[in-house]
């Protein structure tokens, strides 16, 4: 019976933690969770995705790439290249103490907040590396985004 309770607690914790990852949405500011993009010049954009401590590095990179594809399409372009990529992820370390009856246990925890920034060059010709529509479709399917 004890193993069943432990399994149930593990299952609930897994469901809760997996639902906490930053969703694919527009951030309220350049530092907020989600994506943020801006035009640097006519066909060059800066695209950033900021995740929270539950967002994997892989997902943050994929979401930045997805936003790059969508930015190109929204501005009338079909292909793009990544001119520069920057991973400004931050790791925070904290401690907490758990008091349990007559003793206390101190734990050290760390959390990583992924922040991926891409500088992209877009083109209306099919002459650059990434085909925006294919990237968009594949990544939306990978993460079940509608």
Structure, described:
- With 146 residues, this protein is an alpha+beta fold.
- It has helices at 2-18, 57-74, 132-142; strands at 34-41, 44-50, 79-87, 90-100, 103-113, 115-123, 130-131.
- The protein has one domain (21-142).
- It has three helices and seven strands, in the order H-E-E-H-E-E-E-E-E-H.
- The strands form two sheets. It has a five-stranded antiparallel β-sheet with strand order 1-2-6-3-7. Strands 4-5 form a two-stranded antiparallel sheet.
- Helix 2 (57-74) crosses helix 3.
How many beta strands in the DSSP annotation? Answer: 7
Q: State the end-to-end distance.
A: 41 Å
- Percentage of residues assigned to helices: 25-40%
Low-confidence parts, pLDDT < 50 over ≥5 residues? 6-19
What Rg is obtained from the alpha carbons, in whole angstroms?
A: 20 Å
Number of helices: 3
**Which sheet architecture does the biggest sheet show?**
5 strands, antiparallel
Order of helices and strands, N to C?
HEEHEEEEEH
Mean pLDDT: 85
Helix vs. strand class: alpha+beta
Strand order of the largest sheet: 1-2-6-3-7
Into which percentage range does the β-strand content fall? Answer: 35-45%
The number of distinct structural domains comes to 1
Globally, the shape reads elongated
Summarize this entry quickly:
With 146 residues, the protein is of the alpha+beta class.
Blueprint of the fold:
Layout: H1 2-18, E1 34-41, E2 44-50, H2 57-74, E3 79-87, E4 90-100, E5 103-113, E6 115-123, E7 130-131, H3 132-142
Antiparallel strand pairs: 1-2, 2-6, 3-6, 3-7, 4-5
Helix pairs in contact: 2-3
